[in-house]
Amino acid sequence: MPTSELRELDAGLSLPQRWAIARARAQRTLARLRTKWDESEHPREPAGSSEGGQFTSGGGGGDKPEAGAATLDPQVTNVGGDEWNRAAAERLEREYQAAAPKVEKLAIEAPGKVGTRVPSDDEEEEEAPFIPEDWDQLTTTDQENAFEQFKSQNEQAYLDSEIQSWQDSGSALDDGKAIVTEEFNSGDNTDWANDAIDEFRDDFDGEIPYTNQQLIDAIKLDYETGYEGQGKFTVEFDDNKLKQPAGYIPPDPAQLPLPGIEIPEPKPEKALTQEMRDGLTAAITVEFTDTAQNKAESIEPPEYLKESAIEFLEMSWGEKSDNEKFEWTKQFTDIVESESDGSPEAVTNEEIKVEALPTKYDPLNEGSDHNYRRTQALAKHLSIARTREVLDERLPDVPSPSDDVLASIDKKLWGAWKSSSTAPDGMLLQVATADELGGRLNTKTAKEIDRDEMIKYAEGRYAQIGGYAGVKAYIRAKWEVSQYLLDKAGIKELKLYRGISLDSEIINKLFKAMQDAKVVNGHTQLPTLEVKRNGAASTSVADHVSNGWGSSPSRVVLRASVPRTAVISIPAYGINVHSEREVVVAGTAWKGWDAWKGSAPKFEDVPLRHAA
User: How far is CA 370 from the centre of its chain?
Assistant: First the structure.
């Protein structure tokens, strides 16, 4: 895209979004100078593109088990590697064993039930839908919806900006001083003044003939609000409350004065000299300022700041051109996609009914069409049913979603992943998977993806299922169902392949001009290449898919051996490109991996070269 077009697109984004995009562009530039391969730097091309096929996937739910509640399968948990790798394998297997009875119950009850609505396969679309190309081609309802989503996704950022401005301007300190003054005068908070008086006593040369409480009772504070928290502060002493200094003996009212002798009126308050009053005022003023500053940092921002943030949001949207509004809508919502096929959720759903359980489970599409179709029907049914259960368990205050809503979530998350793992939903999937399953989000990805921004994005885009918490529940359920189907098929470990494509220049820098390459059974191994696990990664169980992926002569194929518990999504969900037999894995415990230039050998021909 030309630089001018990039600037025009960026102009419609918020400051945090512009920064995230700028940072991502800078990181892509720096990637050419790196000395280690990081697979997150090289997102796959979309399915059907000129560069070849692309993998996709499915979603999740579930609950955490009690430690020691299950008998762990050693073929799944014996992964080797460091302590983290071993502990992660055991933890995930324990979590699956705790959830398995619930998934089993849903599976047993599935045959004969009224069909579950699930997303239909994208591959069977015959006619390209109408896709709006500008703002005017969106309906009035969609334009209004775009504005509401703009407010929803950006309101917190604008509010944070208003709060920061409120604090920087001194308004927060001004409010803090007013609150501390009021609390002191009402007797609700005088501890800080007690500390100030004690400090003055320590510094004063002489005795102060009043207790701290006597002095506090006699003091009245006054604060007149002012610019940047620098309003007028005064300390006043009530002499009527200083009539009982230490050692003072009031005159005996029974003793009559002698004739002609005038007895002066007693003034015990003079025991608190002007020097003492000045010193106490100075000490109290210092402590008052510190206390007010602490109060300013902890008080709730005033409600009017939220109203101000919304006003600025509305103003910001109103100042955008139609082109800027459309570009923002296309990039940060699914509205354009929704209108393109005329449905409210941008999902073409089909009703799936589990006629009978498979006689032999086939989640990876390795056997007969008959059992694969039965496994696939069960997988789709369990994915929706278990997700609803987990959402209801974790988020009881969120209305239980319909099949259509869950189908929409499935399409949004995995449709975005299919197109690009660096799109907003793809990045959300990375972060949420790492959070939910306790996997590794590698250093580079963690720097490029703003986790807080992804959470904020999920709160708006997936509000129907509880925002970010709902996305994590979805991933948990998808993972549990994948585990169940693999377990029923007796699959404890998977041998996977992943194809990537690099420029020759990067190849030379990453692999020291191939000096460390080794030829093994006619394939070129890259032993010095370091593979870093990430939140989620697309792989295939078929070597020919990865070995034939893309058209670049600088293709690299990774092989990985993972326990069942590393698998999030399997081919049986039917969302991915079936011919690629895709498996999406998490950055949890793996057993080992290696890398090859051009093409990789089969596992049965060449054993894995690197353990975990």
Answer: 41
